[in-house]
Design a protein that fits this description.
By secondary structure, the protein is an alpha/beta fold. Helix content is about 45%, strand content about 15%. Strand 2, helix 1 and strand 3 form a beta-alpha-beta unit. The structure holds ligand C2R. Ligand C2R binds next to strand 4. The site of ligand C2R has 17 residues, from strand 4.
Amino acid sequence: MSTLSPSNSPNPLIGVVMGSSSDWSTMQHAVQMLAHFGVAHEARVVSAHRMPDDLFAYAEQAGPRGLQAIIAGAGGAAHLPGMLAAKTTVPVLGVPVASRHLQGVDSLHSIVQMPKGVPVATFAIGDAGAANAALFAVSQLALHDPGLAARLQAFRAAQTEAARAMTLPV
Ligand SMILES: Nc1c(C(=O)O)ncn1[C@@H]1O[C@H](COP(=O)(O)O)[C@@H](O)[C@H]1O
């Protein structure tokens, strides 16, 4: 499995995986958010289609390695999040990456329409979806980490202040 992020932690709590290095411009927003909150994470390319044995190994090892969630981004026929969810009970957060021909609607439908019994929590297409998947993972970790909960509250407060300070060119 190839490694993309220089911030890979030796004991990651959150795994960020993507089907191709071409997904990095989107998925970097998940990694940046995890880094902002100081959450130990790793980022890797793991493709269900191109590296099926690696995908199975990653999914099988996710729980034993201590991962609390996997954020999985893919575009087009985005089977990666669903196949991870099929092989692990570690929560999978799916991020549809915008595709060249169908703008990510194909990715969204591929990820969100899971059969009953094998859930993937599906986020919005693109950069905001990647960032929100990370924020969701942070929220889950914050339930058992008061320091992280305080940082999340501060993030929300800063966001509120930034929205209140918005002005219009009129
Ligand atoms: N959807 C998947 C999977 C998978 O689901 O296993 N593996 C690669 N891909 C996607 O193919 C698109 C094009 O990949 P390339 O740019 O490498 O040709 C990417 O958005 C990737 O997520």
